[in-house]
Amino acid sequence: MDTNGVDGGHLTAFIERIEKLEEEKKVIADDIKDVYAEAKGTGFDPKIMRKIVSLRKQDRHKRQEEEEILGLYLAALGME
Question: Where is coiled-coil annotated (predicted)?
Fold first, then answer.
């Protein structure tokens, strides 16, 4: 149905696709949470593991640059 230039059928199809993907995203997020819980149960620190996952996503050059700046800031604060 076309209401004031809006194709309701087309819009509904997009909304339903988004809703399905959101549900899949929730299931995947729950699966990831379960993996972290399992890792914690075997003695690993999930907080550190999350940090490693985040670092692995970064470009190597960008990560090295951030680590250098972090080192400078820690040194300036007397924390290194």
Answer: 11-38
CA 27, CA 32: separation in Å to the nearest integer? Answer: 9
Residue 56: other Cβ atoms inside 10 A = 9
Q: How far is CA 14 from CA 8, 20, 54, in A?
A: 10, 10, 31
38 & 61 share domain: no
25-35, pLDDT tens digit by residue? 999 999 999 99
The pTM assigned to this predicted structure is 0.71
Counting the structural domains of the chain, the total is: 2
3-state secondary structure (DSSP) of residue 56: helix
